[in-house]
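Handout for the seminar on molecular recognition.
Each group receives one record of this type.
Step one: identify the two inputs.
Step two: read the structure output and locate the region that could contact flavin-adenine dinucleotide.
Step three: write two sentences on what you found, then compare them with the reference statements printed after the record.
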Amino acid sequence: MNASCVSSPSPITENIVDELRRIAPGGVCCNVDLAKVSRWKIGGRADCVVSPATHDEVKKIVSFLNSRNLSFLAFGSTSNLLFSDQGLRAVAICIGPRMSGVEVDGDCFHVKGGTWVPSLARSVARAGYSGFEHVCGIPGTVGGLVMMNGGSLRRSASEYLVEILSVTATGETRITAKEDCGFGYRRSHFQDSGQIITGVTFRFEHRDLYSQIRRRMLTILSDRRAKFPQRMPNCGSVFKAHDEMYAQIGPPGAVLDKLGFKGRRIGGAQVSLEHANFINNVGGACASDVRRLAHEMKEAVFAETGYLIEPEACFVESCGRVRPLI
Ligand SMILES: Cc1cc2nc3c(=O)[nH]c(=O)nc-3n(C[C@H](O)[C@H](O)[C@H](O)COP(=O)(O)OP(=O)(O)OC[C@H]3O[C@@H](n4cnc5c(N)ncnc54)[C@H](O)[C@@H]3O)c2cc1C
């Protein structure tokens, strides 16, 4: 585990909050308990969370925060994020329900960054396009999905993507064509650019009967219900699949299962009894419990197989820096 933030961000004063309220009316919350609202139900308090409703509001927020030399980070539904026990001193920009919606233009879908992924999968299916069923059970926003190039069944969200609308770290509008997004397995250039994804255009090609697509989606959802833990807070798979290890031995979950990790517990963090690549918060887990457990899992896989598995989940430091979980 690496050292954390080197410097603390400037404090978020009342004047700053007032200005954010002017830019994004109805979208600012202060002193937010991340252990209540984040997906893993872990984290200290966030000083300020702002939820813009439009691309223009995002631009104004970013320009304003830059002018005041304030740190910020974007997130969606936090389904891939572990927040620090120290909370968050940077401004958190939530691209979520206030910024969601889908416009259909022929075979093109223009989707706002905060759109809920399962709802988009249903809209695509209802319009009679197949190929996007694999995301129907992923609990995240379109911005988060594209940033992580998420997907399932060995497919990725970028497959039918045309371009991304974003706000750069300095507050400019940018449109990036798919070829320039640096997509790879659970990778995109956006992970290092500080850009905020506000919209994504997809173009679907293959048509099918809605009843057939729906049948496939129901099968995917029922397989996921059988495989993945449902009741406890978690952030999905902790580790990404390693190509060579996958081919030679299997996915991280299977390897960790063989190593006896199911049920292993540190504090309130426990490796799921259903799937050994999931860490559940079984009650009062701290970020440090989760990270220590993940560290043990990674070390054990390396000792046994010689493969270094990389975390898929991310850690948010109190200064707002997002980095790999361990
Ligand atoms: C039960 C469960 C099952 C899961 N199954 C899968 C699965 O099958 N496949 C899969 O790929 N993932 C899976 N995940 C992980 C997670 O759902 C995906 O990574 C999801 O796409 C993240 O979306 P989010 O909105 O929650 O992003 P967040 O977790 O909020 O953020 C993830 C990253 O994206 C950044 N980010 C988010 N939104 C934006 C934006 N608009 N602009 C710029 N940066 C942004 C954040 O800074 C962070 O770095 C699962 C998670 C859970 C809890």
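Reference statements: Residues 39, 73-81, 95, 113, 138-141, 143-145, 147-148, 150-152, 196-197, 228, 234-236, 314, 322 surround flavin-adenine dinucleotide (CB under 6 Å). Residues 239-310 form a domain with the Uridine Diphospho-n-acetylenolpyruvylglucosamine Reductase; domain 1 fold (CATH 3.90.78.10).
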